[in-house]
Amino acid sequence: MNKWRTSQGSINESGGTGALRKSVDLDDEADGAGGGGGGGGGGSGGGGGGGHGSVGGDDVDSYGEDAGLETDESDTEADMVVLDPDHPLMKRFQAALKAHLDKQNEKITLELRDLVMMLEQQHDQVASLKQERQKEEQELNDVRFLFKDTQLEINKERKNCTALQNEVENLALRLFYMTNSKENVRSDISVMKRAAEKVETEVARAELLKQKQDLYVDRLVEGVERLKEEIAMYDAQISAQTEETKAAKESLMEAYMDIESVEFEKDLFQKWNSSLIGMKRRDEAHSAMLSALNQQEQLILTLQTDLEGYKKTILKEQEQNEKLTHILNKTEREIESAKKQMTQIQTKHEALMNEFNTYSRMLYETEQALGRAVADKQLRIAEVLSLRKQIEQEHQSKNKLEDEILERMRAQLTLAKASHYSKQLIKKTRDVTKRLESETIDVENNIAQCTLDIVNVRGRTERLRKVLDVLENQIAEQNAIITKSEQEMVKRNAVIERKQNQVDSMNKRLTQMIAAAGGVELGPLEIQVNSLHKSIEAKNQEVLDLQQLWLRQQSELVRLCQKKDKELVELVALRRQLTILSQKKVRTEAEIEQQHREMCEIERSVRNMRNDIIKLNDLLHKEKCAGEELEQGNILMENAFIAGLQDAELESIQLQAKLDEIKDEKERLLNSLVEAERQIMLWEKKTQLARETRDAVNSEIGQGEMQAMRSEIHRMQVRHSQLMKQQEKMIQDMEKAVSRRDTIVTRGEAQSKLKDRIVTKGTFERQMGEMRKKIKQTIQEANGCDTEMKELREHQQTISEQLEQKQVNCQQLQGALDTMDGDIERALEVKQRNMSELLSRQQKSKYYQQLKDNKYTMMCRSESALEMESQKQEDRLQSLTSIVHRLNSEFPYAQPALRKVTMTLASRSSPLEA
């Protein structure tokens, strides 16, 4: 960036004609703002000239004058001029600045396009997820028994989709914020164009703008990194959801297999029950037939047939026993697998507890860090208060110094250079105090932002604690259910083993009865018939008892099978709950990782703030060192000035001694000397008037563009600057009048002393020659001043006409700019309102589509719950509006940034009131 600097020379009052020297220097600077070099130039101009400030400040600079008419030394003084942005020499600078800003604009537009493409990809991914979900719903419609569980999963998927939609809305809001930041950059550009009020204040403003731009670039870089992290998180969530869908499909296939096995077993049980009923009826008919038999052979035949039937039933029972043992082994294997799953769940629970402990420890550490940050904030607030007190003390001391300086100026008006240098020091101290005040305001803003971040982090930690408590309660409930099911499984295994032992004992008894009936040889036929009758009756009774016992056992077996089916159903439900808990675990882990990233961002911002505080401390130290150096320079200049005064006093004593030698000739030439002195006084007045008019004209020439800018931006500041100029001019006139009076008094004293001294002829002639030279010099200077005054008056008229035209143009442009700014703000407000309405209508259309497809799940099942939820939302909205109003009242400078929030809250609250 190029900055033109013009320096003007001063009038050499002792060399003959006063010449005005101008030089133009071109400095190439790599700085982003155009105020750094100007500030340095203004400082050098003020220090080197012994009485000059910058033309861009509040006071008009004047050319330096000699302390007395008897000295022959000349002072060269440089004035710094910051050119107007519309100046022809600034075209290259404006073109380079425009190209730089166009590049920044193109870069931001490319980033916006990338973000829009990313948003479209996210929308496509959401649409693909919706299609997959619809396919899964079509598949799940065939399974009515698992409809409720799948409905819960669908609700969770919908919640995820709404969360993604909210994230998309957040991205849209971020886009909107980025557009606002773009508008802020434009406003910063306009502020940079108008930053030509004061050179020294321009340095501070340019530094602040540069810091804001650096912070804005850092925020953009952090936003890009955050978006990249969110994209990676979304990819991870999509992969996790695909894995969850695969696991859900596998669980569905397992559920299909389990349902088929259960239905097959139910068919077997139904067939078995029908066979039992048929056997019971057949046995009743057989008992009736046995009671009707009267002959022994028929009884023996029936007994044999019954024995054969018993053998068949025993074989069937053995087969059934084998089936039951197979089922028992299967249930045992399932119990073992369930135990393994329980161990895995316990290990996962332990891992989760370890993670919970680590996160709780991290939370404790973050709370400690938060406490330290709060303590640091209190220390910073105390430092700010101390700085304010110091600033007030400095302001009081400044006022005292100004009063003392005014008194010394009244007492020592001959010391023009020292007084002017002290004025420059006072200006610099004022600028330093203003810069310190702006820095303290920035520090307070940073502290307020830190407090807001701390409150947000506390709220998030409290929400995470609540979620963690809910998860722990759910895990405890699931553990209780699992332990209860394990106990019931152990009880069922014991009952099955007991029934198996009873079946074995019955089989042994049956084999013994068969052996007793067929292996014994009897005597006569009558005894055999009697014994057979008795044995038949006994056997019939035993068979009836065994049949009743067997029926009871079969009913018990059916009851146990039904319990086993229920336990299988519960086991499937537990598996589903386990998958749901694993999904919740994945989500909580993702949320915890997000919180961890946010904590890292907060720590990074805290580190950046600490670095900024360190930089501010370094700047304060540098300013303090510069102030000490200036004080030392002031002391050295005072010492040099005192030494010069002492030399002047010695010279005056020598002159008085010489005047004593020419006392006799003084009486003869006294009248001529008085006349010459009168002429000198007249020419001094003329030269003084010429210098004052030339200074005024030059100041108006140098400040024309600046006054146009000031009148365009701050008319009250222009009035204040004019009053300060008048005050400075009156003070300078008073100083010059007092200095002339002092010279007259000193000359009168010298003349009074000459009456008592003897003056020689040689000294008198030498003094007369010097006086003639001075008279010639003053005549030449007066002629040059007259010509310069004529030229300057003509130039002043032309500049005043140009100034009036430019002021009119500036006023017209300012009015057009104000109207355009108002139109842009209204258009942005309408755009934001339309965007919010579009998002709300899209959400409503989505809900209506779900309601049309019979897929909508009501959050509130009853009207009372709906009223409570609506009241809760209204209370939340009212609390947010009250917070925003309080922020607007407490921080008025933040109202433009909070205007959009207030508009959105008003748009949300207006339909509620309607």
From TrEMBL:
- Where is the sequence biased in composition, kind Polar residues? 1-14
Extract one GO cellular component term from the record: cytoplasm
Report any one BP term from Gene Ontology: axoneme assembly
Q: Where is the composition biased (Acidic residues)?
A: 58-76
List each coiled-coil range.
112-244, 293-355, 454-516, 571-598, 645-686
- What InterPro entries does the entry give? CCDC40
Q: Name one Pfam family in it.
A: BRE1
Q: What is this protein called?
A: Coiled-coil domain-containing protein 40
User: What is the organism field in this record?
Assistant: Biomphalaria glabrata (Bloodfluke planorb)
Gene responsible for this protein? 106079609
